[in-house]
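Researcher: I'm preparing a figure for a lab meeting and need a structural model of a single chain. I don't have an experimental structure, so a prediction will have to do for now. The sequence is pasted below. Please return the structure as tokens so I can convert it later.
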Amino acid sequence: MNDLKFAFRQLLKNPGFAAVAVLTLALGIGATTTVFSIVDGVVLKPLHYEQPGQLVQVWEAAAPANATRFRRAHSSTGGGTAPCSKTCPSGARPI
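Model: Understood. Here is the structure written out token by token.
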């Protein structure tokens, strides 16, 4: 109990230090609470769907630089050669 009295007296002697200490504790507790709330809501709680294990995400990735040339060469209406194996009889080479 004497230690608490001494600590309180020291904080009253240095109000600037006391303010910084209280502010630091408040920011730390607030940041911890915020991070836990986000992690709890996003990671720990189950999704509100009947079968959350069957959900998928669909997205479109950027096409590689030679994708247009590949599509032209391998499409039936693109004016290029038809898809063929490595031993194509017409002499056309696959890309």
